[in-house]
Amino acid sequence: MKKPAFRKKSAPEAFEPTEAYEAEETGYAPAEPLAAAGPAARSGGSRPTKSLLAAVAVLAVVFGIAEVRPPAAPATGEQGAAATVAQVERTAAVCPQPLQGLTGSTSLTAYTPPGAGTPTGGAGWLSDAAAPATPPTTAPSATPAPTASATPAPTGSAAPGKGTDKGAAPADARLTVAKPGTPVTAPAANGDTAPGTGAVANGALAPGFTVTQTTVVTEQRGLGMSGLTCTPAGTSFWFAGASTAGDRVDYLSLVNTESSAAVVDIKLYGDKGLIENDAANGITVAPGSSQSVLLSTLTKGAVTDLAVHVVARSGRLGAALHAADGNKGADWVPASVEPAPTQVLPGLPADTSAARLVVWAPPEDDADLKIQLAGKNGWFTPAGNESIHVKAGLVAAVDLGKITRDEVAGLRLSPSDDKHATPVVAGLRVDRAGSNGKSDAAWLTGSAPVGTRATVADNRAGASTLFLTSTGDAASVKVTASAGTGGGTPVTKEVQVPAGATVALPAPEPGGLNGSFALTVETVSGGPVVAARMLAVTTKDVPMFTVQALRDDHSSVKVPRAAQDPGVVQR
Fold first, then answer.
1. Is the N or C terminus of the chain more exposed, i.e. has fewer CB atoms within 10 Å?
2. What number of helices (H) and strands (E) belong to the chain?
């Protein structure tokens, strides 16, 4: 594949004044000093006495102003009050291509929790990103098939400027959200070339707006349930736990819902370090389009454990990693938080039949990490799996087996030596098997706390379990089940989480539930708390499940209070 050529735009030359004024000490730069000095100064000094007097007069005026008007003191009292808190007015997210094969089905569920304020107006919707003009006849790879146009005509809200300018949902939206507090669900496009989706909410529907994508595949290749919470477009995405060995078929989905093209590099790390491949660099994703990249086309051979870093050179996009392990299970590998010395992975089920931990360390330093579990009574170290050593720039992995021993848990990695803290990225594959030997898999990753509020949509009657882990002090958490997509009465429950412990509870369900519902978690006190939701549905005798972490929805922002301060012009 011919790589696109880029040319740097030369920066404008810095302005260099023709006259140098020694103004730093006084804070002033007099305008037109030569004119103020009179024509004699310009003509070579024929009247030196008058010129000198004029110059002295100008300096006297300058220093006189500086003397009688000292810089104003910083604002105090009400003018220096703390920043105010305001609700966000627009929220956008990107959902990946379903990667559902020919027979799989995918549902999209959108929800905005009711707010404390009284905002009015607004709209929320989901629309497809344009599919490639010429669908590939073989498995997608890092070399996209040429299309009829460099910038395909996108559809729906993924199309720049369509529907979003007036703040209303476009006519071809896949679904629309009418009001906060009631989730809406709709099927995604059918087929193995279904595009990604762009989600937008504004006005009263923006604060806390979230979208969950859930796919069920019953054919042997890619068997299992795959779910994820759609994420905002960005420029950097980390994943740990990918593979190109055995029956694994892992795809990276790239969806651009922005108005300009995105150019990305895909960096793959294995047990021998960075895997060099020119085909992984400079991949262009046109506005309003979707691409899927088969990882095995980039690794030059089978690699059992991989960390993946997607970096946008220009533009922004959504990136998601899907893993399928033959008939052993499939799911999305969630994007991790940024590399950090301590990583917490919530959501280990009690009936975990196998677990595999994958960790990446940066090229600058090795990482020595403690492995701890947050059980029902607090943090403890699993016997035989006390630590993991990761060499600089490499990926290390360890099989943890039935590490939970029939108890729910969260997993924490932290430096063995606090003075030697190396930022890492971590992922954990979790398998659950039925009595018939059939199994499914899910992937957990380093997560952030729920903070003030976090929500996950697409919960179903008798099928959702909530995991709450307090990584600090004992915490009190409020859990709210919304109305259902087809009706129901919201229900709220308060849950106590001991310090360093994990509590699992069947998700509370709304009264008179009809359809699927959303779960909202709010930290009342203590913590911080990390949380995850497991959706488990047995289909064709397969114990299918998927796990999603709940992260702060950042529905409000701090707005600094401005105050008049004339003194700033004199500093």
1. C
2. 3, 36
Sequence-distant (≥ 6) Cβ neighbours of residue 23 within 8 angstroms? 29, 30
User: From CA 162, how far away is CA 53, in angstroms rounded?
Assistant: 68
CA-based nearest residue to 106, from 173, 219, 182, 185: 185
Q: Assess contact for 203 and 119: CB atoms under 8 A.
A: yes
Asked whether the predicted pLDDT for residue 133 surpasses 90, the reply is no
Q: What angle do CA 98, 99, 101 make, to 5 degrees?
A: 120
Among 129-143, 339-353, 362-376, the range scoring the smallest mean pLDDT is 129-143
Q: What is the pLDDT of residue 8?
A: 39
- What is the arithmetic mean of pLDDT over 149-170? 48
Please give the structure tokens belonging to residue 519. 């779960």
Q: Give the closest residue to 257 by CA, choosing from 296, 225, 211.
A: 211
Cα separation of 110 and 525, whole Å?
28
Contact 253, 99 (CB under 8 A): yes
Which residues on adjacent β-strands are paired with residue 303?
Answer: none
Q: Which residue in 491, 511, 495 sits closest to 503, CA to CA?
A: 495
As a whole number of angstroms, the distance between CA 333 and CA 239 comes to: 7
- CA separation for the pair 309, 319 (Å, rounded): 10
d(CA 422, CA 367): 6
Give the residue among 426, 298, 268, 444 at the shortest CA–CA distance from 361.
426
Is it true that the peptide bond before 528 is cis, omega within 30 degrees of 0? yes
Q: What digits encode the pLDDT tens for the residues 195-217?
A: 999 999 999 999 999 999 999 99
The pLDDT value recorded for residue 108 is 97
Gap between the Cα atoms of 521 and 517, Å rounded = 13
CA 222 to chain centre: 25
Q: Amino acid letter at 198?
A: G
Tokens (6 digits) for 280: 């992984």
Residue 317 has which token pair? Answer: 């996009």
- Quickly tell me which residue has 């009263």 as its tokens: 204
Give the distance between the most distant pair of CA atoms in the chain: 109
- Each residue of 513-538: b (16+ CB within 10 Å) or e? bebbbbbbbbbeebbbbbbbbbbbbe
Range in 64-78, 99-113, 474-488 the model is least confident about: 64-78
Q: What's the rounded Cα separation, in Å, for the pair 86 and 18? A: 48
- Does the pTM exceed 0.85? no
Question: Cα dist. 478→30, 55, 522, 556 in Å?
Answer: 63, 73, 5, 19
What is the distance between the alpha carbons of residues 268 and 282, in angstroms, rounded to a whole number?
14
State how far the Cα of 173 lies from the Cα of 255, in Å rounded to an integer. 17
